[in-house]
Amino acid sequence: LVHCPSLVLQTKGELVAGKETSVIVEFTNPLKQTLENVTLRLEGPGLLRTIKKQFGRIPMNSTLTWEVKFAPMRPGLRKLIA
Q1: Which of 2, 51, 58, 66 could be bridged to 25 by S-S, CB 3.0 to 4.6 A?
Q2: Which Pfam families match (predicted)?
């Protein structure tokens, strides 16, 4: 059985081109073991350049929270992917 872990992206404030805002990425480790050497990547064409961040350890059943500040580069409907 394959289980897809929970990943939540939540923006803070309104997304306006050129105006700084932030997004909060939350990842919960559903496994019964600690994850080590974890890399998260956040990207959004027209919103921000690809950002990678290394995390050392995520214990079992714990939630990692990562806040990224950025200013959307272009107006219009865009997708943010982590």
Answers
A1: 66
A2: Transglut_C
